[in-house]
Each structure stands twice: as C-alpha cells, then as structure tokens.
Protein 1
Amino acid sequence: MKPAPFTYLRPQSLADAVHLLNTGEGIVKPLGGGQSLGPMLNLRLVRPDLLIDLSRMDETHTAEVRNDAFCIGGSFTHAEIEDGTLDKALEASPALAAMLRHVAGTIAHRAVRNRGTLAGSLCHADPAADWVLAMTALDARLHCTGPRGPRTIPMVEFMSGAFTTAIEEGEVLTEVSLPCYSPAMRWGYTKFCRKTGDFAKASCAVVFDAPRGVARAVIGALDGPPALLAGLAAEVARRGLAGLSAQAIHDAIASAVPEEDAADRQLRATVVKRCFEQVLRAS
Ligand SMILES: Cc1cc2nc3c(=O)[nH]c(=O)nc-3n(C[C@H](O)[C@H](O)[C@H](O)COP(=O)(O)OP(=O)(O)OC[C@H]3O[C@@H](n4cnc5c(N)ncnc54)[C@H](O)[C@@H]3O)c2cc1C
C-alpha cells in the first residue's frame, strides 16, 4: 500500500517548524527520519494532511556541554552517533561517548540507522527501542518546544505507555541532555533479538559512576516504559559479583514485571546478568 495523499514541507528553522505544526490545516505531523512513520503511512495507520520534515533545522543538530550537561540535538541520526559524531563534544566522558556509539550501532540495520533520528525514536516510544532504554538508564532530560515555549521532561516521565509519550501535539523534541558523567563511568548494554537487526525481546542497560553516586539498571522490551531495577543496581555497585545472585536477579525482575511466563523471565534474567557482568568486567 502507499500513503494517502499529504502535503510535505521542510522548514529551515525550528521557529518555522513550530509555527507550521501549529497553524497547518487538518492533521499535521512532524517527520524525523521516517523509519517508523514511513511504514505507518504506507499502511495508512496514520493519514496526515501535512508532514513537517524536521531534518533541515540546524538548531537541533548540535552537540555541546552546556549548564553542566551533555546536550545532544534530536536530529542526529543513529548512524551519525554510531560513527562518533558526538565524540568531540563528549571528550570529558569517553565512556559515555562509547556507550552512545555502541547503542546506536545496535539499532536495526545501517539503512535504518542512516535515516532514523534520536528524537524520532524517543517520540515513537516503542517499548523495545534502544534509545528509550539507554536514555532511561542515563537519566536523560528531554527538551521540547511548542506554542507555549520550551519545557523539559525527565526521561522517566516522558514515556507513559507503549507508543505514548508526554509530548503534546504541536511540540517538537529538540534536544536530549545527559548528566556530565565522569571519566570513571562504567556501562553495560545487552539485548536479545531473534535475528540481527530485529527489535529486542529482552534488553538491559546499566550505568555506574561512583564519583557521581550513580548506580542505575533498567530493563526494556516490556509492555510499557522501561523499568528501573534500583535495588539490584545498588547492591551490585556495593558488593560486586556477590550482589548478583540468581535469586537477587529473579526477585528484582519479578518485582518490576510481576506477570511474565517462565521462559520470558529466564531470558530477561540472562540479559540482566550479562549486562551487570559487562559493567563489572570494565571496572
Ligand atoms: C526494519 C526496522 C528495524 C528497526 N529496528 C529497530 C531496533 O532494533 N531498535 C530501535 O530502537 N529502533 C528500531 N527501528 C526504529 C528506528 O530506530 C526509527 O528510526 C525510530 O523508531 C524512529 O525514528 P525516525 O527519526 O525515523 O522518526 P519518524 O519515523 O520520522 O517519526 C516517528 C514518530 O516520532 C514523531 N517525531 C519524529 N521526530 C520528532 C520530533 N523531533 N519531535 C516530535 N515528534 C517527532 C513523528 O511524528 C512520529 O510520530 C527499526 C525500524 C525499522 C524500519
């Protein structure tokens, strides 16, 4: 199938994009890389009257340290991040740069990564999406702008359910900011996919940064937003491998995801264990 007819506009500035999103007639949607929206248009699951392509706005394509945070424009593609485009801005935290490169490189296939964007992935809010998981583990803050001006939403409050977010119609996700993790930061990122390039069936991200007092573990590919395993992360940060017993992992997952069949629970437990082991090996 092919999309229902729509008008396509590609503004050159954020101000123009927000203006068009809020004054366009009928159903108006922002377009990132089109890697999720494109298939939905083709299947006629969405039938916008007007598409606003956000790919030409310089304002959302910058990366820098600002106000004690790493600020990453939403328009960066997965491929740009995989290729190290953010490395210079993140030179104070090479581990963070490495984590972002790694996460980007595990998304789908290169053809999808060439077009798909950080903001598009977060706004699409697929529970199995990689940026949704990684940005929750990294305690990101999401910066949006719309007709009522800019606002900031913590990642943990951004996704309220599968494919549902706090972003409102007419708003653009412009930037993601991350704490300035120290050079001592350690991370793990593991996922299980049936085939290379598939969405994850189970996934886990762990971030430890002792100087900043950070120990976060998050599981993804659930029915809704990722879930924090705060107790397990604190135990492993304190006791190392001794805190990572099979029972501790099982209890942490059971409390975060009470309803799950045994096979899925086992898969998740394996992914969580490998993720923590990756962090501990790096320590
Ligand atoms: C075959 C295939 C395999 C994939 N595998 C994976 C995978 O393993 N892991 C993974 O994480 N993802 C995967 N994806 C999804 C991919 O990462 C997409 O790039 C991503 O979900 C959407 O990003 P996009 O920039 O293409 O957004 P689009 O498809 O253009 O838009 C997605 C949604 O976000 C909205 N939107 C886009 N940008 C903004 C913005 N700045 N502000 C507000 N709203 C916005 C759009 O209106 C739309 O509702 C896969 C996709 C395909 C086609």
Protein 2
Amino acid sequence: MQDYDVIVIGAGNGGLSAAATLAQNGMRVLILERHNIPGGSATSFCRGRFEFEVALHQLSGMGTTEQPGPLRSMLGRLGVLEELSFVEMPDLYRAFIPGKLDVTLPADRAGVIEILQERFPGEKEAIQKFFELVYAYAVELYTCLRNPSAAQGAFPLLQRYAFKSAKDVLDEFFTDPLLKAVPGAYWGFIGLTPDRLSFSYLAILFFTYIEMKPCHIKGGSQALSNAILNAFLAHGGRIRFNCGARKILVENGAVRGVITEDGDEITSRFVVSNASKITTFVDLIGREHIPQKFFDDMRGLSQSPSGFCVYVGLDCEPAEMGIDASTTFILPDEDISGKQFKRMKVLDTENDMVAFSCYDVADPEFSPPGACQAVLVTLKYGEPWMRVPPAQYAHEKYRCADAMIRQVEKVYPDFRGHMEEVEVATPLTFMRYLGTPGGSIYGFEQYMKDSLFFEQPRVSPVKGLFMAGGWVANCGFEPTLMSGKSAAGAILRMEG
Ligand SMILES: Cc1cc2nc3c(=O)[nH]c(=O)nc-3n(C[C@H](O)[C@H](O)[C@H](O)COP(=O)(O)OP(=O)(O)OC[C@H]3O[C@@H](n4cnc5c(N)ncnc54)[C@H](O)[C@@H]3O)c2cc1C
C-alpha cells in the first residue's frame, strides 16, 4: 500500500483547496510545503506592531449570504465560512493622475456610470454604452463557457469582441485619453497593459467586482489560508512545512510518489502540484517523462511579471492622511498604449503605475488602534533584478522603494511623515518565497492569443498528476482556489 493516496506539492490557494476537498472526501492526503506557513501568496508577515498582508487587495467571487458567489459557496462546502469574516468594499478604486485626474469609482454600476459622466460630460452616451457592453459581453461569455456548443450566432458580442484588446475597445468607445485611462487602470490587477490584455478580462473584472463587490478578509488572506488548513487537518490531512518536493517519481507514465528535499521517498497514487507548471514539468518530473509536444506548446506562453512591493506601517489612521479609498491606482499619465509594459522590464520604479492599498479604510480594526498599513505595488519582471550584484541589492531596493513613496506623496502628501515600519519585496523575494520562475505572481500571461478561449487542454501528460493554482487557472484568489477544487474533483471522479 502507498504511504498516501495523494501528495499535494505546495500549500498556496490551489494546493490548500485541493487538499482540503480530497481529505473531506476521505482520501489520505499529505501536503509538502517549502515555506513555514500555509498560503503561498495568501500569507502575512510581521514587522514591529504590524501584520502585513502580502497579496490580497480585492477578493472576488464572494457575493452575499442571500446571493452567494461561487467562492462563498465553495468555502461553505469546505466548512470554513464560519471561521471567517468578510468586509465588502464600497469602492472599486480611485484613479489618480497628478494634476489631471482624480475619480473614485464606486462598486455599483449606476454609480460608476454617473461618476464618469459627471467628469466627462462630452462622452455621456459612450460611457453608458461601454458599460452596457461590459455587462452584455460578460453574460455572453459565461453562457458560452457553460455551453460552448450553443447554436452559431448565439454569441454576437463574443464574435465581435473576443479577439480585441482592452485598448481596442476603449479606443472604439472613447475619445478623451483621460477617460480611457480610468477603466484601463484595472490592468494593474491582471498584469498586462490594456494594449496587450484581452478585453474579456477587463469585462470580467468590472462585471464580477461590481456584481459581487470586492471584499477584504478580516485578519487578511492568512486567516483564509489558516482556516482551509485547519479544515484539512480536521479531516485527517497531514502537512510537512519546511519540506519542499525535489522530484516527482514517475514509472511507466504514471506518478508513484515524491522525493522531498530532505531525501525522503514518499509514495502515493496521485500527485497534485501547486508549484509552477515550468517547475513541475522541467525540474520535478524531468523531460524524459514528458512528450516533447507538451514543451513545444508551453514554449509559446510567456511568464507574467513579478511584483515590487513596499509594505508600510503608519502611525495614524487613514483619514489623517486623507486616504478614503481602499485602492488607489496612481498613474504617471493617461497612456494605455504600452509605455507601462516597457517599464515592467526595467529596474527603476520612477514613473511606474502604483497600486496603493490601505486595508484599514474598509476594516478599521485591521491594524493596531491609531495606526494603519499601506501596500504599494508595481509590476516588474524578474530579469533586471537577477542582474543586480548582491552588494548593490539593498541599495537598489531602497532606491526603488523611495521612488514609489514619492509617487504616493503626490496623492497623500503627509504619507512619508507617518511611516513607522517599511519592508520591501522585490521579484527576488517572490522567487524565494513562491518558488516561481522569475518570481512571477500571475502564472502565464493572458495575451489575447492565450486568453480563456485558447486554454491548453487540461489533459495531464502523466497519469495520476494534476495541477492546481495560477499556472493552470487564471490568476487571482478565486480562480486559484477553484482550480484546487477542480483538481480534487478530477481525482475523486477517477476514484468513482
Ligand atoms: C502582491 C500581490 C498582490 C495580489 N493581489 C491580488 C488581489 O488583490 N486579488 C486576487 O484575487 N489576487 C491577487 N494576487 C494573486 C493571487 O495572490 C495569486 O493568484 C494566488 O494566491 C496564487 O495561488 P497559487 O495556488 O497559484 O499558489 P502560490 O501562491 O503561487 O503558492 C505556491 C506554493 O507552493 C509552494 N511550493 C512551490 N514549489 C514547491 C516545492 N517544490 N515543494 C513544496 N512547496 C512548493 C510555495 O512555497 C507556495 O507556498 C496577488 C498576488 C501578489 C503576489
């Protein structure tokens, strides 16, 4: 008999939800996690009196108790909802361009339209029509995904817009570049600039966040990861922390188990990998067990950027600095044609778009009384950071952090004076803690050619091996948690 039915490699969102679902259904499951805490990106860390949220800015898919979204239903089935509290955020985001633009979009369809029409009265009708399209398109998209073989002609909007970039559609509807920059700013949560990003993702983002509202988790995403892990343990699951997987054992085209980084050989009938797809197939399995065609297909994809994040603990409440939106996108200018894409490939953060989040706006108890925390994120590819000599690393990281803080001061001038704790994460930090190539935080990039219409078939080239997480699902909490459930479902179906 094998040691376990299933070994799950990695305790990120995908790994945890797969493991908990399998354990709940009576399977003997072991998780191997290289880090010393569960969650992957969905974690926190402490500095001084602050517990900093690593990743989660806006959680999608929750909906309400009366009208639960897919994620709420899934967490309910895992039995973790009672342990968690969610706070609905009233706004989508504030979009700010120094001296040119300052609008806050509420998480409400009529409200978004009204705010934009007030600021851009000359394009009133176009604004109305754009959001009509976003909604109608998202509905067609979800209908099509559920029933792709529906009669030809059933999806006229998909036929017209599925292969357009977000920029194509913003250009079609709007003339004022400042207006285009407002909805365009949401690209910061997907990782590709509007000129490269499939319109489908922008539409999905607006539709789901407006319909189901962006949420914050009390206690941060670590609370969610802990709750899923506790459910897993309560169903008899086992986890080893500080214990990476070094090899996935394959015999006659089927998994046989895993060798840990400590050299232990543990056998299992199934393996679920939450590590990156590249790591899984190139390093953990090895080319000799995988058909070349699989690598040829993967070669056509590109890795998403990593992040450069500045985590700041502040000695006052948000209102004292004038912060009244949970998320502020600070844009250097109105460009949506790819200038920011080029900036993701350089070290400097001067003139980058900064996604600024202050969790205490929605949840005043998030930080200690009288304090709050903010996270400044810009997206960066890992390569320039890999070229920094070790002796210059600290200098470069604080220089780049300083440039981002200067961007923030353009919106919140008192920010620097209230800083009490600062920690900085570069792409190398994400490489270290997530184990992803180049520190990628969003898996493979979602170019039009790689958008959801062209997803690779999910047939595993190795019997008994399943993938979960951001490299097989779309990026984000909701999709990665769902991907773990799907991987578990596939195993349970095989078990009959
Ligand atoms: C700064 C930032 C901001 C974000 N903001 C948002 C947001 O606002 N909303 C949203 O929905 N999403 C957001 N995301 C994206 C979201 O966090 C990720 O898509 C999601 O958490 C990825 O989950 P995953 O299942 O792919 O696992 P990951 O988080 O990638 O975790 C993988 C785990 O596998 C482990 N591992 C890897 N290799 C091995 C090995 N060989 N052996 C053992 N363990 C291994 C790692 O240690 C890690 O714990 C953000 C991400 C970041 C980094």
